[in-house]
Amino acid sequence: MAEHPSGYAAIFLVGGKARRFAGCAKSELVVGGATILERMLAATESAVARVVVGARPAEAAPLPEGVLQVLEDPPGSGPARSVTAGLLQVPDGCDQVAVLGGDLPFLSGEALRLLHRRMSAAAPGTGAVYCDDAGRRQWLCGLWPAKPLRQNAESIEPGAPARHLFTGIEVETVNWDRPSPPPWFDCDTPQDLEQARHWAAD
Questions:
Q1: Residue 75 pLDDT exceeds 60
Q2: Where is the MobA-like NTP transferase domain (predicted)?
Q3: 1: in domain
């Protein structure tokens, strides 16, 4: 079995309003000396395509060479439409797509490999998604088969929740039992950011 996801693309959703951070883009918050987006891009260096979806601040650092940026259509139409926009930039040869919120500071290559292993061990056409400690599926921290994801994206309406993209796709739920911080941990609040910075410092 491949040790790394083969032919996978990564889509990062960075277009949220971040009202709890006074409008500051969560993907540009600094954790452990780098922005969250920089940390996530480093974790996905093995991807054959990386697509950042959503507006970024004018002062944000340029994206690395080869990383694309697009806007959802129409702007502000939600995470599902953002994924749809990102999929348009994913090469046809990619058979797996990581769908990722833009505020996951502890996403790692190891975490993606674990998703890939669980996905590969399941029936064809199955996705793999992390669950948090309360057993909730973290839809924006998962790896999905590209073909059914594209098919679902064709009928997504503006404002639809992200989970509508995964309708009809069998899902393997994955728990993180390593000593490192969980890859599904997102910085939704200032308290979350404080926790992330504490973990990164340790």
A1: yes
A2: 10-154
A3: no
The confidence score (pLDDT) of residue 21 equals 57
Number of domains the chain contains: 1
pTM: 0.93
| Residue at 156 is within a domain | yes
Q: What is the pLDDT of residue 131?
A: 97
Helix axes 109-121, 36-43, angle to 10 degrees: 50
Verify cis geometry, omega within 30 degrees of 0, for the bond prior to 74: yes
Q: Residue 3: inside a domain, yes or no?
A: no
Which of 5, 85, 92 has its CA nearest to residue 52? Answer: 85
| 4: its two tokens | 């790394």
Residue 91 above 80 pLDDT? yes
Residue 194 is given by DSSP the state: H
Instruction: List Cβ<8 Å contacts ≥24 apart for 37-45.
Output: 37/12, 37/102, 39/105, 39/106, 39/107, 40/12, 40/100, 40/102, 40/104, 40/105, 40/107, 41/12, 41/67, 43/107, 43/108, 43/109, 43/111, 43/112, 44/10, 44/98, 44/107, 44/109, 44/112, 45/109
Range of the domain at 137: 8-201
**In this structure, is residue 128 part of a structural domain?**
yes
CATH code (residue 45): 3.90.550.10
pLDDT of amino acid 5? 46
* Model pLDDT, residue 15: 76
